[in-house]
UniProtKB/TrEMBL annotation:
Signal peptide: none annotated. It comes from the Bacteria. SUPFAM superfamilies: FAH. The keyword Hydrolase applies. Coiled coil: none annotated. Residues 165-347 form the Fumarylacetoacetase-like C-terminal domain. Keywords: Hydrolase, Metal-binding. This is Fumarylacetoacetate hydrolase family protein. Belongs to the FAH family. Gene3D superfamilies: Fumarylacetoacetase-like, C-terminal domain.
């Protein structure tokens, strides 16, 4: 694995029992893999991309080329998605909803956050945690907040009928386990967002899950929600992995609903931050978020959907009241027992490894390897 990340330390606790899809970097180029009961198979002759491999479920591992055991895998893991769209849901937890309101009220100025946080928590903290989005109670809370002058567009998507769903990252631009993860060099208030990510096939069926880091720039989005694209989509700003765990009798959507997602940040100066995001506190069911994503859109190659995070770091790092922001050299680890651990080191997006493998380059590579059938070439 890249850097000092050991693959065995990042695998799910029961990795020998599950069924997983991933991608590895071979000498010839990227290849999708299937991991079945701890055995790894190169599936590039079955389906040249991970998106196409998902479409072929259920899979026969014996149709692939054996690569040995997962614990002995010598090839570096890539992000487990390739041609899937990468979508994300925002403000799906009460705590993160309040933090978005704070960013907006502070206009991206971290020095004002502490005072605003206290005032907002006192007024709506308990109410927003118990209300069901889109319910009559939510409408009544909205009316009260408008009357108090505390209403926000972030509260609209937190407790209103419509979820926030946005495009996080271009296809093929995500990074995987052990890769550098990027923040804008001109951001001064930012944080990781540890999330579970659902994987949905081209028919709209939710087939599995993985871990993700939806890096957030609080100063940019806080200045204006119209800067969401600049806050969210930068070089190396989206990490996924280590593998997609497919749903089966031993791992279901209920495991996602009840997951505890841990976050650890270790800074180069000895700083350490730990937190936990409990998925049972999500305000909208994960499959409802999938439904809203699909409501009037098709995704023929499928999509990956970030479900949002409870975690919004406010622990001071450098000075009282400033809260948290990243430093170059931070190591971010996101973990839950059934999906494993995703580890990345923070750099600026300018200094991160450039994204160079686009769709045209991938198709050229696959064609040169003889992996595109006549039908696939026509559709490429």
């Amino acid at each position: 694995m890249p850097g000092d990340v050991a693959l065995l330390d990042c695998l799910p606790a029961d990795w020998r029992d599950g069924l997983f899809i991933g991608r590895v970097q071979t000498a010839d180029g990227p290849s999708p893999i299937l991991v079945d009961k701890g055995q790894v198979y190169d599936m590039s002759r079955v389906a040249p991309t991970a998106a196409q491999l998902v479409q072929k479920l259920p899979l026969d591992a014996t149709a692939g080329e054996p690569l040995g055991t997962l614990e002995g895998l010598a090839l570096p893991l890539l992000s487990p998605v390739d041609l899937q769209c990468v979508k994300a849901c925002g403000v799906t937890f009460a705590v993160s909803a309040l933090e978005r309101v704070i960013e907006e009220s502070a206009r991206g100025d971290f020095t004002k956050a502490s005072e605003i946080r206290g005032r907002l928590e006192e007024r709506v903290g308990g109410s927003i945690r118990s209300v069901v989005p889109g319910s009559p109670e939510a409408a009544a809370l909205k009316a009260a907040l408008i009357e108090d002058g505390l209403w926000s567009q972030y509260l609209e998507v937190a407790i209103g009928p419509d979820a926030e769903v946005f495009t996080k990252s271009p296809i093929l631009s995500t990074v995987g386990l052990g890769a550098e993860i990027g923040i804008r060099s001109d951001s001064t208030w930012n944080n990781p967002e540890p999330e579970i990510v659902l994987v949905v096939d081209g028919t709209g069926k939710t087939v599995g899950a993985t871990l993700g880091n939806d890096v957030n720039l609080r100063d940019f989005e806080g200045r204006s929600a119209l800067l969401l694209g600049k806050a969210k989509d930068n070089n190396a700003s989206c990490a996924l992995g280590p593998l997609i765990r497919l749903f089966d009798d031993g791992f279901t959507i209920d495991d996602v609903r009840n997951a505890e997602v841990g976050l650890t940040i270790d800074g180069p100066e000895g700083y350490r931050l730990e937190g936990v995001s409990s998925m049972n506190q999500i305000s909208r069911d994960p499959l409802d978020l999938v439904r809203q994503t699909l409501s009037e859109h098709q995704y023929p190659d499928g999509f990956a959907l970030f479900l949002g995070t409870l975690f919004a770091p406010v622990q001071d790092r450098d000075e009282p009241g400033r809260g948290f922001t990243h430093k170059v050299g931070d190591t971010v680890a996101i973990a839950t027992p059934r999906l494993g651990k995703l580890v990345n080191r923070v750099v600026t997006s300018k200094d991160a490894t450039p994204w160079t493998l686009g769709v045209a380059a991938l198709m050229t590579n696959l064609a040169a390897r003889g992996l595109l059938t006549t039908k696939e070439k026509e559709n490429a």
